[in-house]
Amino acid sequence: MTTRDDTRRLVPPGFLSNAGRYPAVAIIALLLVAFSTVSPFFLKLGNVEAMLGANSVVLIAAVGMTLVFLTGGIDLSIATVISASAVIAGLVMAATDSIVLGVLTALAVGAGFGCLNGVLIGVLGLTPFITTMATQLIARGVAFVLSQGVAVKGTPYALLDLGFVTVLGVPAITWIALLVVALFVWLLSFTTWGRHVMLVGSNRAAARYSGIRVSRVEFGVYALSGLLGGLAGFVSIANLGNAIPGVGDTLLLIIIGAVVLGGTDMNGGEGSIGRTVLGVALLAILFNGLNLIGIPFYDQLIVQGVLIFVGTWLAMTFGRRRT
Amino acid sequence: MRKTPFTTALVAAALTLATAATPVLAQDGIKIGLSVDQLFESRVGVNNAIKAEAAERGYELVEVVADGDAQAQNAQIQSLITQEVDAILVCAVDQNTIERALIAAGRADIPVVAYDRDLPDSRVVAAFVGPDSLADGREAGQYMAEALSGRDGPIVVLELLGALNDQNGIDRSKGFNEAMAALPDLEIIQAPTDWDSARALSATQNAFQANPDIAGVFAATDTQIPAIETVLTDLGKLKPAGEEGHVVVTGINGSPDGYRATVSGTADGIVVMDLDTTGRTAVSLATSLLDGEEVERVNVIPGAFYTTDTIEASKDDIWGAR
Predict the structure, then answer these.
(1) A147: nearest Cα among A65, A21, A243, A212
(2) A240 neighbourhood in chain B, CB within 8 Å
């Protein structure tokens, strides 16, 4: 009992509950100090710019995943929807040399897969896990069949150059991701739709009784998640230079990891886009720093896994006490 | 009690980092970045040669491995650029997948040498060094054509292909087929394996079931020869060279599997890649580029053919025998 009082004096009020709400902050602070001490290159402008550019795809997709998580669902297809959108947009651009057509194609492909998930889960009531797993397979198959397994050549040079454009020191593709973040922060916090999403996730029955059309909300989040996957697919072309059929294959765990580490609850109703931004930042800093100090790839996987344990546990331990 | 778990977590994380992190040595000398697609026997062989040559020249070497992930390789090349390496040696995960990162290297005036897998469409890669896959395939084909020349047709041969999207695999097949065309009345059955031994095994089983008269098997990588050996043993077709019904087996690479099979006589002969020269040439190309010298864009290192009779005597030249 005395310890409890001591703790109150030692840490500022609200610290523990904030550690639960933002478990990523403490880890980020720790990583920043550690990496900048160990590597002289970590805080260099060029490195920060590279880090921002490299993580724009993940950030855009993680916003989509957050929306789905908030309703208590999951979108396992988002990573390979990125691949399929990139490949199809890449083929369109290779044939027409039109960036505008490329963007529209990527968005249409993403939205198409999203609406498929939305109808199956929201309207027909299938389980999100199995449904999106099936969509994941289909999207991956589409990406590899259409590209024959190799990167699509013929990206317009203007798009390659876009990957290097910076505005106020921030890469153009990161600005795209930040606009997406701003848009969805606003939608979730200040619109009726945003309140409906949170209510469906925290108490589905109550949502239904208060007249919210749950199926429509669910359809909406999966459709948007697909749409954002499509956008991320297009951005991946600007980031990597070509449309790569396997681009999304390794992203799913990073996207889910970022959302969970950020502190959004997989069971729905608890979380925010802001937390996801922190989660993405955490993993971005981690990968970049581990590369810089020369930790081998497979060792990085172990560190990544351990961190997800720590983050989830922090969120659980301190998040639970708050309520 | 309340703060204990949180503090423990912080301390644990700090300890993990402290033990994992080794400071980058700041040196005035030349620093070479080595970006590797993924690790397997022959890749490690080339990398070891690169490391040995770099060490002899007093260069610092920073190695990153992408485990077959294009995105990871892009980020890793970017981190090499950030670390201000003087030159980058790269074996790309796939053609066209890392062009943006390479352009970034080009913008930072860092010369890029591709090894083992060429990037013919790259705007940045200044030089390539790798196997002469066309010549290697031709050499294996010539040997097999000679070994089978006395037989009555039609002669059926099984070719285990590499991956269909890998230029080295495509060129080995092309060279092999060119040389085999010397035989009249020939039928070549092609089976793609994606460099995978399990697929090679089932492809060989299927091929022998459909064509029990197969007279020869060519494996694009000799790591698949044990799979061929398994099938031949099962069918009772594993007979020494010179005996009636002997199936001629050749392959390309020089791996421990290929070496053992050739010594034992299961394989008649293999083309052994010169990984040492490939690795050392990669470093010397980078050095020339740093010195502002002109270099050849494409540099190929042909392999050497060894038969059961000659292979043991040349043990020291075969990477898989060391």
Answers:
(1) A243
(2) 70-71, 74, 97-101
